[in-house]
Amino acid sequence: MKKVFVLFLVMISIQGLNAQEKKHEGKFEQLGTQLPTPNTYRTGSGAPGRDYWQQKADYVIDVELDDQTQTINGSETITYTNNSPDVLTYLWVQLDQNVRAKDSSSPKIRSSRIYRDSIPAKAFQSYTIGETGYEGGYNIKAVKDQNNKALPHLINKTMMRVELPQAMNTGDQFTFSIDWSYKVYDRMMEDGRGGYEYFPEDGNYSYSCAQWFPRMCVYDDVNGWQNKQFLGRGEFALPFGDYKVKLTVPADHIVAATGELQNAKNVLTSDQYKRFQKAKKTFDKPVLIVTQDEAKKKEKKPNYKKKSTWEFHAKNVRDFAFATSRKFIWDAMAVKLDNSAPLAMSFYPKEGNPLWEKESTVAVKNTLEVYSERTFEYPYPVAISVHAANQGMEYPMICFNYGRPKEDGTYSDRLRDGMISVIVHEVGHNYFPMIVNSDERQWTWMDEGLNTFLERETKRIRYSDLSLNWGSPKGIVPYMKGDKKYIRPIMTNSENIRQFGYNAYAKPSAALTVLRETVMGPELFDHAFKEYAQRWAFKHPKPADFFRTMEDASAVDLDWFWKGWFYSTDHVDVALDNVKWFRLKNEKPGLENKIKSTQIAGSGGSEEKGSETNSDFSNGYEEIVLTDTDPRFYGEYKNRVDDEAIRRGYADKNFYELSFKNNGGIPTPLIIEWEYKDGTKEVEKIPAEIWRMNESETKKVFAKDKEVVNIVLDPYLETADTNTEDNVFPKKEEKSKFDKFKEKAGE
To answer: What residue stretches are annotated with the Peptidase M1 membrane alanine aminopeptidase domain (predicted)?
Structure first.
């Protein structure tokens, strides 16, 4: 008889497991082969391995800007060091300006249509047709070795292969030079990261020069040469190196650039030099180095003939950018960090004031302080914000940012919010990807997503009056609930992403916010995030290095999280499907009650007690009986529990069985707010692993001392749940009840 009983239980268990397997979709399986196999270059912990290596590219550049023809002429010498274990027979150089050359693929592959019968002329020319008359692209004049001998080279659109006269072995260096020129484009007509803005009122230009020189591609242990063509969106993978750059411009220009200015006495007036030195020791507020009155005087009488050369040196950077104009006002202040005092600086025309003088450099300071606390101390000597219309773009130590008041100097709260946000974001890019040097051509989220998350954290800590909606769980809901045909997984190449801003910026930021606030908790998350930043500072991390480090440094298994948020287009939508209320029945247990309780605790058949769906608590509670424990449950154990004591312990408790449905697909923690009859409230958090045995639906019983009158799931909108109407019980009050919680959350 006992054998038959055991066989029956085994059969029931197998049937249950088979049923679960049919429902199981693998959301809690490990990423496994989706991540690359660890090796001596990149470990299974997410840290660089003992044999990790990376290449180095050092530059000496001499360039002149012609302010009358808007042309750049340059010559650069590159010293390339092969630290890889591989033999190299050629080098790849990026020619990003060729994205605007006549033979560029970018305009050819850009979809366009006539979407209405009335189209703004500029939009039609620039975007619909894509013909502005600009003749872009590099003029490569010469490629030579250090003996001035021409090197064979092949230009394939935005990439140039340089043939080596002899193979480079491990540890070898090769020095070669490139002479080149190109015409700078008008950013008002040509959408891009560099270029100039023309000011017709005074006839002057402001230049923000980016991707302005041929740059080495990355060669690494994962991809070999990263020579994927630049199509306009996917940004840049670059090796670290040291730069010495001379920039020749009109003598009345002010120049901002990556690195430290080497000849300030030669290019500044005596008064400006004194103010510059004062700023280096001033920590409480910005010091004006070039005043608005000084800039306005130069605007009125431009001097095109006289030239001056500004020299900048930068160590261990992956790129170099500069901005120059006679219109620039310049202010600066020192930032006190634990072991250094970098100089925060802003350059802007009068059109940026009074907003820029008030906010820009302070925003740079705030960013350096918060990011340094959350990752590593800012290692460079300067951090610069330059005013450039309709722009937000980053480079080592310098970035270009929008935010222009009206002509009368007034500005809205929204404009201020946007300007501060973009400055924090672009200055923050010094950390990701300028130092934690991810491959933007492949994985935009590794710099934009991580940086948007820290931008939001900086605003939360330093700017309580600014909106925190962008990049938040609440803010991502409209995108997450949208049509899936317009959505791509976060793990999508930059050029193939739909809804770029949401996918590469906002969704990863929201995911990290959920990870910090709801899944891991701030302490564990912050430690692991800092570990990743410090492990990969001045190195080239890949997605697996981030995923593995976050788990390694926290002892939290997050594969389910990466799969749901980063590898799929699923969303969060959990429904509080049903609630049952039970209390113990006060009677002596007997055989009849034993049978009844077995039915209650059974496999959910048609005779299960309370199987109906409830909409409120109006029917009161249902009674259940705790029977004496059958000896068979003890097996070989000789001791026994006190059944009566257990009954007494639960006699006055309220038991609530909550049924949840996962309608969105992403497993998520359950945040439950209980409101009791006496008016008090309690918030309870259940880890996402509650879905591990059934990813579609789950139930859980809670024991409460007090009677519950209202239950809300995700009351403060922390999980990005796309449908909050099914998150409440009683159901008849769900809309009005949840409106109250939305108000609390700031909607």
So the answer is: 367-565
Answer yes or no: are the C-beta atoms of 428 and 371 closer than 8 Å.
yes
CATH fold group of domain 441-569? Neutral Protease; domain 2 (1.10.390)
Residue with tokens 């004062």: 278
Residue with tokens 């130092």: 435
Sheet strand arrangement including 153-156: 153-156, 159-168, 88-94, 215-216
* pLDDT tens-digit readout, 629-663: 999 999 999 999 999 999 999 999 999 999 999 99
Domain boundaries, given as residue ranges, for the chain: 55-192+227-239, 242-437, 441-569, 572-744
Q: Cα–Cα distances in Å, from 562 out to 27, 543, 645?
A: 10, 10, 45
Query: Is domain 55-192+227-239 classified as CATH 2.60.40?
Result: yes
414 Cβ contact list (under 8 Å, min separation 6): none
Q: Which amino acid is at 10?
A: V
Rounded to whole angstroms, the Cα distance separating 583 from 652 reads 8
Please state whether beta strands 215-216 and 329-334 pair in parallel, antiparallel, or not at all (unpaired). unpaired
User: How many residues in total does the chain contain?
Assistant: 747
Picking from 425, 97, 369, the residue whose alpha carbon sits closest to that of residue 236 is 97
The token pair at 131 is 């013909």
Q: Which of 711, 734, 733 is nearest to 723 (CA)?
A: 734
What is the distance between the alpha carbons of residues 403 and 358, in angstroms, rounded to a whole number? 12
Q: For residue range 654-705, what is the model confidence (pLDDT) as tens digits?
A: 999 999 999 999 999 999 999 999 999 999 999 999 999 999 999 999 999 9
Determine how β-strand 153-156 pairs with β-strand 159-168: antiparallel
- Whether the link from the prior residue into 405 is cis, omega within 30° of 0, is no
Write the DSSP symbol of residue 587.
S
